[in-house]
C-alpha cells in the first residue's frame, strides 16, 4: 500500500504561524525518511488556525530540505488564477526538484467571500469555466498547444525535463468526470465528504479516457487518521481536532485546542451527536487497528494510494502517528 501525507498546516493554541510552518517542514522531513510517497500542503486564505496561504512557497522551502518525497499542492485553487502563471510556478518547482512535483487542481474558494473577492474577479464564473481552465493549464504543462492557438508560441518557462504531475482533487461526480475526461489522476477527499466516495471513484474508473501519454487511471483517497500506541491514547489525542471542528462551526475556534482544553469544552446534546458523526468519518486507533481499517478502505474504494490527514495539538503526537502507521504498513 502506498501512503502519503496531507498537511493543512494547522496552528495550535500554543503556536505562532511561523512555528506551525516550521512543524510542516518537520512533518515532510519525517515523511521523507519513513517512506511516504508524497506530501501535499493545502491552500487557505484568512482562515483562523491555518497557516499556509501559498503552497508554492512552502513546496520550494520543503523541497530544499528533503530528498525524495514527492511534493505538491492540495490544491491549487485554479478559479483564482490564470493557468499560465500556475504552469510557470510549478514548472519552476519541477525544474528545481526533478520528478518530485505534483500539481493538485481544485475548485474551492479556500476562504471567506471577502477573501475570494480580494483574490479574483468573477469567481463563480471561473468555477463554471474550470474545465476550460484545466485544459489550458494542461496544454501549458505539456507545451502542446495546437499551431493555430493564440498561445502556440508561448512557453511556461522554464520547461522541466519531467513536467509536474497533474491531479484533479474533489469530492463530487463532476470532479471525477473531469479527471476521467482528461485522463488524469484523481484524489477523492473522503475526510471532508459525506458522499459515497466508492461510487464516485468507480464512476471515475468507468469513464476514464487514456490521454496521449498513456496514463492509466490512478486513485488517491484522503482520510483523517489519528494513531497512537493504544486506542485510548489515540481517542484522547483526536479530541483536540474534533472539538476544534465544533468550535469553528460556531465561529469560536481560532487555534487547535490542547487535549486539556478540549476535555474541558462543554458539549450540548446536539454537539455530542455531531462529534460522534465526525468520529465515524475518521480512523482512530492503535497501529494494528489503523492498518486494518486502511486496508479495508483501500479495498472498498479501489484506491491505489491512501493520503493521511492528521491534526493534533502536539506536533510530536502528529509525527508519532505517522511513524506508527509507517512502521506497521510501510517498513
UniProtKB/TrEMBL annotation:
Residues 1-299 form the Luciferase-like domain. Coiled coil: none annotated. SUPFAM superfamilies: Bacterial luciferase-like (SSF51679). CDD domains: Flavin_utilizing_monoxygenases. One of its GO terms (cellular component) is cytosol. GO terms for molecular function: oxidoreductase activity, acting on paired donors, with incorporation or reduction of molecular oxygen. InterPro entries: Bact_Lucif_Oxidored, CmoO-like, Luciferase-like_dom, Luciferase-like_sf. To bacterial alkanal monooxygenase alpha and beta chains. This is LLM class flavin-dependent oxidoreductase. The lineage of its organism: Bacteria, Bacillati, Bacillota, Bacilli, Bacillales.
Amino acid at each position: 500500500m502506498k501512503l502519503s501525507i496531507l498537511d493543512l498546516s494547522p496552528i495550535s493554541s500554543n503556536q505562532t504561524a511561523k512555528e506551525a510552518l516550521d512543524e510542516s517542514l518537520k512533518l515532510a522531513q519525517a515523511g521523507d525518511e519513513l517512506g511516504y510517497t508524497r506530501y501535499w500542503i493545502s491552500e487557505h486564505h484568512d482562515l483562523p488556525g491555518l497557516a499556509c496561504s501559498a503552497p508554492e512557497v512552502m513546496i520550494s522551502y520543503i523541497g530544499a530540505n528533503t530528498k525524495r518525497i514527492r511534493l505538491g499542492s492540495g490544491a491549487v485553487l485554479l478559479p483564482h488564477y490564470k493557468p499560465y502563471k500556475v504552469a510557470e510556478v510549478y514548472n519552476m518547482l519541477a525544474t528545481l526538484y526533478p520528478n518530485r512535483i505534483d500539481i493538485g487542481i481544485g475548485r474551492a474558494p479556500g476562504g471567506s467571500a471577502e477573501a475570494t473577492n480580494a483574490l479574483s474577479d468573477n469567481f463563480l464564473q471561473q468555477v463554471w469555466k474550470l474545465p476550460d481552465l484545466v485544459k489550458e493549464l494542461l496544454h501549458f504543462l505539456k507545451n502542446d498547444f495546437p499551431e493555430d492557438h493564440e498561445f502556440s508560441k508561448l512557453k511556461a518557462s522554464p520547461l522541466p525535463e519531467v513536467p509536474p504531475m497533474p491531479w484533479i482533487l474533489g469530492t463530487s461526480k463532476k470532479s471525477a468526470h473531469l479527471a476521467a475526461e482528461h485522463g488524469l489522476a484523481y484524489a477523492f477527499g473522503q475526510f471532508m465528504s459525506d458522499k459515497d466516495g466508492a461510487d464516485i471513484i468507480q464512476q471515475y474508473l468507468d469513464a476514464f479516457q487514456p490521454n496521449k501519454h498513456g496514463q492509466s487511471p490512478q486513485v488517491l483517497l484522503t482520510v483523517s487518521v489519528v494513531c497512537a500506541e493504544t486506542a485510548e491514547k489515540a481517542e484522547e489525542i483526536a479530541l483536540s481536532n474534533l472539538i476544534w471542528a465544533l468550535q469553528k462551526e460556531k465561529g469560536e475556534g481560532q487555534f487547535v485546542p490542547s487535549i486539556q482544553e478540549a476535555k474541558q469544552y462543554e458539549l450540548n446534546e446536539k454537539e455530542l451527536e455531531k462529534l460522534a458523526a465526525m468520529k465515524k468519518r475518521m480512523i482512530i486507533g492503535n497501529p494494528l487497528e489503523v492498518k486494518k481499517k486502511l486496508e479495508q478502505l483501500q479495498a472498498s474504494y479501489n484506491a491505489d494510494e491512501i493520503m493521511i490527514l492528521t491534526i493534533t495539538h502536539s506536533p510530536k503526537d502528529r509525527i508519532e502517528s505517522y511513524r506508527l502507521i509507517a512502521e506497521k504498513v510501510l517498513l
